[in-house]
Write a sequence for this structure.
């Protein structure tokens, strides 16, 4: 007990000291110890920047402190504040010591904890960039290429003291003027915050345009806050180079120089300088294009300074020179300024134009175009008319005032005062017109006045300069028209007058003599063809039968025409006297009627009618009817009304009253003419039912909607799609109202051969050829069936429609979309997770598919070994399948180590199968790859993925851009902790829509995603399986990627119509239907999201000013009249609205919309009464107003339209004014009905006028009216109350006057009258023309008689219509006046001749026409003018020159336009152009007298026309020698000319002809060859020059001797098909021994020039004999001893007959024949042919030569020769042996080469021809 107590006492002090221990405080790590603190240098002084935080274990108070002058700290709170400004560029970090101190405990010392901190100062962008070394300059050549950099001195250096992004600089050009377009700048980084600049040229420089530039550049940092910039300038000087042409100062040059200026006169000064002003060169001046030498350049100063004076030379200027005159008096030439290099060598030059205006000097006199003129004129030319056919011109070649002259006439004989000249003042070239001044002197009847003679004088300032004599001869004129003895003739003839009977005579006389006085008669008018008039006697005869009933009178015009064409007319009336020659005609040949048994009346009434065409004197069409007979047994059953023709029953009709149940009557109709005529008809009355009635189909279509049924009854039936042939569809049945139904026959009109019908029973069945599979063809048919009865006279047909609906039969088996499926799944996949989905398609409509797993499940290990023990791991239960959706799920835990691959079969079955249900199944194989899961396998980092649920779900929008990244796969390797960079798509291997980037894991889009297309395919979801591989590819993980395509509102609604139109009756209210609109949206809806967003749903609304008047169902689109609204047509007759269709009600921000126009026409209802323009009317009228005098115009309006808006006026209450007034019912014009004299009074007359519309004419509507009061005051006038009135002119009447009427000629007789007594002043009238219009000056009126006459000459072409205001007034008090407008029309007189509007010296009118165009082709149109009008202005045309071949004709249309046509096709190869002369003349004027006249340019009635014939390609190329035959030697050298081919094309504009060899074939002749020839590309043996046509040899012909080549040559110059020509050439290969040769006794140089004509002349002689000859060469003659004779020539030749070469013997026989030698003798003599022999050289025989030698005198020479011969023989034998050996070797080589097949080139063609074989070779073996 004592020991524990002691221990306790010892431990108490220890315990007390432990409790008093003070632990040090601690800063809060991270957030309170400034360990991660930094500070911006921009922080304001005094602002809190940090708070120190700490903790004390004892929980005591803490105090804080900080060292240094930069910061201060609140010791209690620890808040740190900034005490001084910071500058990072001076100090980028601050070192401080922070301390924390706690409180002492029970007297213990406080603890202090200190820490050292280095606080970074963060940069703030407070330093702007700095340029160093300024100013900057650069000198650059103006030839510096674009893109080159400028050398800047000094180099541009710019720095920024800041750091990071604040020190990243950008250099740019400051846009000033266009400097930044010319130079560009870029920054080059040297170090952080240190940059230089590169300046490059962007556009070419031009020193002359701009010698220097100032470029301002700006350097800006890249700070995100407080961005700073600095500016600098660069002075750029451009250095000049020689690149500019000389420049003329004050160019272009021009001056005015008078013609004939003397030499040496200075015209102007010329100066040129070098365009390169920086380094100018010397300039030399010279004249260019000044061929006439009128001017020269005289330099002043140094000749090379580019300054000179232009002076005239001794060649004077002539203003009338053709070149100067044609150029308008302007002389133009050039001056060249040439730069000189070093003052000598010419360099660049420039040219400027000098324009010299040559002024005229009076150095020419006027001249006439001929010294004397003769003209013949008609005597009836009027005053002012020009003398026709007189073309006089005066020409003064001077210009301006110098070309002025005066014209006057000087009488020579009998011409004083008869003619006048115009113009009297003229200038230059002027046409002169001689006009008639006094036409009374032109009288052919006065013999002394038949010719005139005068001089035409041209003078200047009174001095005669030129004259011309004019002789005028008068021609007699036809100046008297025929005159009838009476103006009107009237004859009467009976209508049965016989033909050619004389009716009467007319007579006319003509005072003229000769042909002009001979009168002929013509008859015109409607019906004139019925009569014939004797042209000489005037007798009128009947030519065609008359018929009073067709035409009772004829009003004709008799025309009397004299020999000059003047004519006069008289009226001829022929009255036709009626004769009773027409019997009554019934309307029908037979009448038929059916009445019922026992009927006593006809219902409706029964009329027979006949008509008589005779006139009033023959009964006037009256007809009397009677029954002639009837076949009734009872008799008198019928009665007919004599005058009306009504047939009635007197007894009841009985079918037994006649034999056949039908009454037959004969009814007659008789007229009242003399003698009376009659006619009869047959009337049939049938007792019973009339006619054959149409059958009626019964039908079995039930109208469940109670809609109106249009058309016959129909049938509706359904049949299965697998209906077999003979299947009963339905039976149609019809009823015949008037016959037996069993006699009906049924027929099918059309059913695509799918159905048959029994024509007796109407049973419709399926035909054996039917194709009614709903899945392949149509799902419905319409069968048109006819039922035909057996009625007479015409069988009747009824029609019905059978609608056949094809019912779907479940007979199609389902089919999987894929033959097999594969999926990769991790073994960690949780149970219940989806693996994949299989899908099958069934075409049947009512299919119900069920999925199931069938058969044994196969499983193998990763080594491919099948699982033997399934009890440990039941793979059969590893997966399950949803029977409805086909989705496969994990059903149990998966183990990669046991079953790495699991394969099973999925079957789909149609549960609703109707046909062979046991066979409506399909299977597919599913392979599941179970992937092992290891902690070391890659792990996908995408959200939603886990090893137990390795599935990624991606949603993408449709219509995303191609190649866009849809998703990025992210995976890491847990071993290396590095990101995976190897991905691959494993199922499917290739995706149609997606692409997986293996390195990045990006899933890219490779094909457009259209939600609507995917929806149509059945699904908008995709499933992929991807694998992530480790870097060494030893480890991997597989994930499924489910991609769901989401719908986007990318389709706007589309209306069925862009514009809708509707009508509505006004005043209709709610819910009157207007119409229904429909719009469609292509956006699809596959899921609940689509339904919620509603991209496919459409909401309708109305827009527009009147949209409130209507309502629209926002879902159906039905538009009705809105509630509490009414449509008033008078306010809105036409309503235009916009219908808006908007989709996406679930997402309004994504909505799309479309608009359609709605046009509503409001139909009128008569709901508005007429409204007068005034509430009441009043009018005042004097009592002397005449009847029908206008009083007042009443106006009313009605807002309705149609009949409801048509008004009629009526006086409904006249009061005291009964009978005084009337109103126009349509216009409302109130006028007096009669004279109001005596009705004047102070009180007004009150009338009530009604305006009523025609609304009663509308169905179910009534008329509306309004009345108004009218007060009329009739004023009482004085004694002069009669108002004068016009009798003539009537209102609108016109007066006529001819334009050549003399002054004072009568125009119109004005007639007026006054009701007052004509013997009193009130009844005396005065006429006058009011001077209110300018037209009044042209006419005068007699104040007393009213006769209007002319006061001046009238010209219709100047003014054709005048209006004058006539006034008549009496002399009473007060004066009564009346005015009326009279229009006076000036009638045309033929006083102008047609003319063409052209200049006198104008060129021809140019027209073109294609060659070979058919006759009638229009070449062109043109027209002349005639100032006359109407028929006087009608113009005709004639070709007078240039149409010798009659290839052109000319026509005119109704507008006097000339139409030039061809009369036959024209060949351009025969003629290339035509020049025609066309003359215009009056229509009807004889044209033949002008044909053959030459063109006169002064004659304006003539026009020259130039017609160019345009060429077409209508000629093929033609060979000059078609199918030629030539020969060549066997040893002919290569490139030897064989022949020259010539081809021409007759087309004028033909393209150059190209010659090509298309085919070459070799044909052997004379003997059969022992070896085959090479028949490959034979074209290589020949070359054809496409330009010259030379055919040359191109190879060796040693193997082709004794045969010929057949060559086909094509000539083509067109790109069109079948526009080529061909020729065939035979080329014979001949030995020299097969040829003959001519020997000429002339040297070769002479024969070579003549060999071609020699051969041509021989050919001409031989051709009639069927022979051809071809000369091969021309050589020096070789004698028999092989010596050359240069004085003679030999030419080998070959002869041919019919294209075949002749043998040597045949040629010798022919050429030596007596006949041919005689024929060729003259040619031989001409060309010196001395002999004819074989072409091979003849050698002298050795024996003969040896004999000669022996007979010589030198015997020793013979011995010597023998020795030499022996030696030669030995040598010859040696040579022969060597030759034989060489030939054997050559032959073997040749045979080996021939055995090598020869390939045909693509351009070679060959064909075999039979060889010509002979029994023996003619020439011996080769």
């Amino acid at each position: 007990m004592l020991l524990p107590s002691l221990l306790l006492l010892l431990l108490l002090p220890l315990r007390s000291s432990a409790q008093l221990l003070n632990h040090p405080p601690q800063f809060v790590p991270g957030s309170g110890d400034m360990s991660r603190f930094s500070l911006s240098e921009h922080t304001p002084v005094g602002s809190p920047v940090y708070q120190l935080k700490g903790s004390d274990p004892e929980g005591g108070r803490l105090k804080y402190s900080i060292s240094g002058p930069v910061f201060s700290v609140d010791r209690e709170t620890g808040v740190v504040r900034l005490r001084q400004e910071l500058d990072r560029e001076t100090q980028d970090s601050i070192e401080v010591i922070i301390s924390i101190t706690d409180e002492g405990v029970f007297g213990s010392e406080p603890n202090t904890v200190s820490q050292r901190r280095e606080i970074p100062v963060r940069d703030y962008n407070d330093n702007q960039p700095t340029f160093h070394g300024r100013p900057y300059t650069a000198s650059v050549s103006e030839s510096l290429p674009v893109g080159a950099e400028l050398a800047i001195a000094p180099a541009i250096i710019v720095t920024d003291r800041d750091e990071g992004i604040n020190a990243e600089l950008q250099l740019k050009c400051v846009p000033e003027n266009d400097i930044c377009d010319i130079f560009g700048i870029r920054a080059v980084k040297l170090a952080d915050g240190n940059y230089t600049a590169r300046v490059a040229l962007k556009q070419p420089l031009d020193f002359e345009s701009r010698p220097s530039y100032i470029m301002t550049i700006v350097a800006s940092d890249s700070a995100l806050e407080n961005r700073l910039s600095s500016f600098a300038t660069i002075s750029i000087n451009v250095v000049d180079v020689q690149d500019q042409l000389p420049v003329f100062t004050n160019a272009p040059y021009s001056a005015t120089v008078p013609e004939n200026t003397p030499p040496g006169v200075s015209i102007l000064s010329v100066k040129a300088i070098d365009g390169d002003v920086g380094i100018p060169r010397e300039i030399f001046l010279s004249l260019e294009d000044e061929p006439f030498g009128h001017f020269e350049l005289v330099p002043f100063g140094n000749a090379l300074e580019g300054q000179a004076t232009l002076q005239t030379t001794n060649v004077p200027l002539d203003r009338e020179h053709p070149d100067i005159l044609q150029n308008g008096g302007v002389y133009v030439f050039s001056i060249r300024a040439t730069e000189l290099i070093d003052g000598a060598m010419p360099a660049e030059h420039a040219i400027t134009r000098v324009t010299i205006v040559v002024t005229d000097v009076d150095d020419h006199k006027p001249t006439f175009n001929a010294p004397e003129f003769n003209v013949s004129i008609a005597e009836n030319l009027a005053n002012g008319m020009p003398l026709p056919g007189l073309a006089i011109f005066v020409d003064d070649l001077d210009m301006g005032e110098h070309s002025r002259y005066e014209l006057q006439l000087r009488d020579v004989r009998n011409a004083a005062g008869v003619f006048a000249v115009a113009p009297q003042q003229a200038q230059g070239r002027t046409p002169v017109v001689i006009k008639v001044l006094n036409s009374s002197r032109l009288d052919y009847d006065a013999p002394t006045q038949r010719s005139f003679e005068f001089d035409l004088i041209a003078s200047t300032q009174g001095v005669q300069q030129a004259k011309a004599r004019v002789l005028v001869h008068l021609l007699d004129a036809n100046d008297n028209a025929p005159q009838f003895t009476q103006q009107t003739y009237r004859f009467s003839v009976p209508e049965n007058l016989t033909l050619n009977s004389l009716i009467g005579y007319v007579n006319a006389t003509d005072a003229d003599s000769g042909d002009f006085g001979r009168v002929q008669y013509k008859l015109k008018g409607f019906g004139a063809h019925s009569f014939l008039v004797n042209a000489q006697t005037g007798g009128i005869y009947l030519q065609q039968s008359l018929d009073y009933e067709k035409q009772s009178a004829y009003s004709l015009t008799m025309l009397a025409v004299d020999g000059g064409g003047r004519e006069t007319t008289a009226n001829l009336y022929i009255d036709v006297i009626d004769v009773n020659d027409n019997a009554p005609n019934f309307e029908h040949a037979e009448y038929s009627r059916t009445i019922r048994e026992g009927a006593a009346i006809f219902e409706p009434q029964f009329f027979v009618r006949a008509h008589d065409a005779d006139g009033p004197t023959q009964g006037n069409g009256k007809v009397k009817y009677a029954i002639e007979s009837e076949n009734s047994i009872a008799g008198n059953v019928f009665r007919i009304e004599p005058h009306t023709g009504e047939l009635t029953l007197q007894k009841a009709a009985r079918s037994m009253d006649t034999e056949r149940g039908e009454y037959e009557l004969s009814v007659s109709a008789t007229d009242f003419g003399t003698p009376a005529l009659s006619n009869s008809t047959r009337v049939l009355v049938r007792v019973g039912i009339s006619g054959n009635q149409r059958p009626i189909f019964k039908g079995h279509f039930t109208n469940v909607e109670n809609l109106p049924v249009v058309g016959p009854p129909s049938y509706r039936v359904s049949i299965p799609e697998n209906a077999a042939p003979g299947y009963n569809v339905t039976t149609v049945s019809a009823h015949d109202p008037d016959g037996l139904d069993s006699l009906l026959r049924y027929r099918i009109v059309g059913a695509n051969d799918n159905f048959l019908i029994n024509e007796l029973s109407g049973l419709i069945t399926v035909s054996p050829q039917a194709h009614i599979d709903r899945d392949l063809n149509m799902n419905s048919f319409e069968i048109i069936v006819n039922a035909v009865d057996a009625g007479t006279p015409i069988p009747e047909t009824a029609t019905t429609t059978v609608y056949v609906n094809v019912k779907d039969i479940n007979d199609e088996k389902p089919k999987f979309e894929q033959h097999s499926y594969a999926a990769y799944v991790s073994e960690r996949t949780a149970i219940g997770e989806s693996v994949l989905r299989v899908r099958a398609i069934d075409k049947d409509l009512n299919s119900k598919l069920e999925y199931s797993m069938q058969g044994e499940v196969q499983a193998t290990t990763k080594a491919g070994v099948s699982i033997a023990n399934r009890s440990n791991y039941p793979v059969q239960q590893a997966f399950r399948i949803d029977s409805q959706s086909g989705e496969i799920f994990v059903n149990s835990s998966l183990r990669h180590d046991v079953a790495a691959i699991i394969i099973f079969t999925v079957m789909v079955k149609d549960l609703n199968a109707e046909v062979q249900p046991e066979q409506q199944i399909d299977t597919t194989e599913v392979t599941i790859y179970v992937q092992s899961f290891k902690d070391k396998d890659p792990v996908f980092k995408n959200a939603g993925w886990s090893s137990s649920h390795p599935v990624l779900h991606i949603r993408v929008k449709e219509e995303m851009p191609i190649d866009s990244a849809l998703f990025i796969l992210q995976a890491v390797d847990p071993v290396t902790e590095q990101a995976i960079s190897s991905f691959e798509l494993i199922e499917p291997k290739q995706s149609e829509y997606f692409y997986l980037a293996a390195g990045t894991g990006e899933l890219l889009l490779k094909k457009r995603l259209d939600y609507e297309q995917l929806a149509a395919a059945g699904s908008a979801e995709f499933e992929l399986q991807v694998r992530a591989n480790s870097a060494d590819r030893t480890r991997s993980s597989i994930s499924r990627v489910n991609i769901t395509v989401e719908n986007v509102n990318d389709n706007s609604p589309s209306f069925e119509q862009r514009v809708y139109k509707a009508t509505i009756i006004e005043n209709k209210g709610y819910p009157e239907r207007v119409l229904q609109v429909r719009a469609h949206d292509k956006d699809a809806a596959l899921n609940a999201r689509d339904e919620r967003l509603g991209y496919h749903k459409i909401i309708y609304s109305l827009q527009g000013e009147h949209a409130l008047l209507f309502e629209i169902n926002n879902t159906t689109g039905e538009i009705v009249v809105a509630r509490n609204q009414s449509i008033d047509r008078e306010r809105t007759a036409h309503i235009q609205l916009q219908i808006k269709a908007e989709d996406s009600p679930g997402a309004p921000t994504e909505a799309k919309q479309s608009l359609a126009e709605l046009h509503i026409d409001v139909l009128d209802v008569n709901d508005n009464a007429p409204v007068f323009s005034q509430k009441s009317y009043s009018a005042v009228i004097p009592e002397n107003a005449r009847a029908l005098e206008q009083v007042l115009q009443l106006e009313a309006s009605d807002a309705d339209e149609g009949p409801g808006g048509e008004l009629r006026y009526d006086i409904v209450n006249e009061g005291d004014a009964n009978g005084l007034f009337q109103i126009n019912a349509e216009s409302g014009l109130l006028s007096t009905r009669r004279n109001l004299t005596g009705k004047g009074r102070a009180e007004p007359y009150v009338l009530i006028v009604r305006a009523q519309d025609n609304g009663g004419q509308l169905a179910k509507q009534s008329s509306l009216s309004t009345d108004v009061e009218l007060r009329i005051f009739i004023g009482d006038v004085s004694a002069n109350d009669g108002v004068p009135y016009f009798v003539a002119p009537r209102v609108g009447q016109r007066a006529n006057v001819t334009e050549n009427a003399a002054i004072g000629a009568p125009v119109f007789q004005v007639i007026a009258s006054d009701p007052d007594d004509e013997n009193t002043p009130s009844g005396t009238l005065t006429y006058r023309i009011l001077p209110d219009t300018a037209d009044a000056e042209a006419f005068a009126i007699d104040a007393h008689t009213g006769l209007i006459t002319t006061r001046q000459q009238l010209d219709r072409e100047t003014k054709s219509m005048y209006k004058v205001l006539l006034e008549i007034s009496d002399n009473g008090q007060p004066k009564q006046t009346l005015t009326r407008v009279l229009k006076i029309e000036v009638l045309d007189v033929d006083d102008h001749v047609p003319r063409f509007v052209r200049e006198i010296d104008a060129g021809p009118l140019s027209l073109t026409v294609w060659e070979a165009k058919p006759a009638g082709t229009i070449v062109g149109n043109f027209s002349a003018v005639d100032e006359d009008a109407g028929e006087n202005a009608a113009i005709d045309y004639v070709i007078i020159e240039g149409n010798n071949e009659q290839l052109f004709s000319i026509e005119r249309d109704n507008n006097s336009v000339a139409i030039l046509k061809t009369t036959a096709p024209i060949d351009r190869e025969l003629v290339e152009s035509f020049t025609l002369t066309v003359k215009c003349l009056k229509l009807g004027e004889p044209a033949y007298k002008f044909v053959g006249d030459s063109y006169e340019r002064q004659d304006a009635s003539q026009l020259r026309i130039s017609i160019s014939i345009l060429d077409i390609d209508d000629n093929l190329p033609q060979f000059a020698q078609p199918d030629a035959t030539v020969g060549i030697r066997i040893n002919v050298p290569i490139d030897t000319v064989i022949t020259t081919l010539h081809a021409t094309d007759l087309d004028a504009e033909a393209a150059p002809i190209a010659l090509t060899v298309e085919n070459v074939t070799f044909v052997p002749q004379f003997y059969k060859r022992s070896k085959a020839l090479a028949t490959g590309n034979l074209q290589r043996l020949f070359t054809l020059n496409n330009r010259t046509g030379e055919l040359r040899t191109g190879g060796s012909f040693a193997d082709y001797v004794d045969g010929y080549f057949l060559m086909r040559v094509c000539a083509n110059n067109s790109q069109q098909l079948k526009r080529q020509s061909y020729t065939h050439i035979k080329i014979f290969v001949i030995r020299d021994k097969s040829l003959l040769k001519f020997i000429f006794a002339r040297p070769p140089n002479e024969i070579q020039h003549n060999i071609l004509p020699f051969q041509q002349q021989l050919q001409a002689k031989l051709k009639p004999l069927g022979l051809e000859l071809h000369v091969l060469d021309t050589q020096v003659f070789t004698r028999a001893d092989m010596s050359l004779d240069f004085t003679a020539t030999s030419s080998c030749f070959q002869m041919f007959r019919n294209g075949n070469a002749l043998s040597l013997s045949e040629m010798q026989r022919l050429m030596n024949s007596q006949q041919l030698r005689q024929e060729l003798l003259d040619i031989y003599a001409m060309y010196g042919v001395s002999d004819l022999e074989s072409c091979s050289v003849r050698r002298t025989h050795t024996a003969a030569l040896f004999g000669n030698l022996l007979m010589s005198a030198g015997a020793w020479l013979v011995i010597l020769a023998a020795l030499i011969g022996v030696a030669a023989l030995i040598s010859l034998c040696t040579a022969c042996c060597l030759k034989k050996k060489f030939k054997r070797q050559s032959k073997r080589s040749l045979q080996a080469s021939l055995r090598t097949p020869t390939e045909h080139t693509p351009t070679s063609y060959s064909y075999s021809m039979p060889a010509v074989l002979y029994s023996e070779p003619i020439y011996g073996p080769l």
Residues 1-19, 702-711, 1739-1753, 1789-1822 have pLDDT under 50 and may be disordered.
